[in-house]
Design brief:
Number of helices: 2
CATH class: Alpha Beta
CATH architecture: Roll
Number of domains: 1
Strand order of the largest sheet: 1-6-3-4
Length: about 80
């Protein structure tokens, strides 16, 4: 199972635990997050795995920690 870690204001919006299958596409993960956390509707967020940013075309296998973060900018 994947563990989800919420950051920033998303942490206060999403307080419950969700179990996700070990094998899931990032696109399906995003859909599942929106179903389990309707409060995310309209909130932009980025997904990152242990090896970097995740895109909808990626797949997840195993037991990876997934970070769910509001958009950010760096300098």
């Amino acid at each position: 199972m994947h563990s989800l870690i919420f950051y920033g204001k998303l942490k206060t919006l999403c307080t419950e635990t969700v179990l996700l299958p070990s094998q899931i596409s990032v696109e399906d993960l995003r859909k599942s997050l929106n179903e389990h956390f309707p409060q995310l509707h309209g909130e932009p967020f980025l997904l990152a795995g242990e090896k970097g940013m995740l895109h909808d075309s990626n797949s997840l296998n195993g037991d990876e920690s997934i970070s769910i973060m509001p958009p950010f900018s760096g300098g």
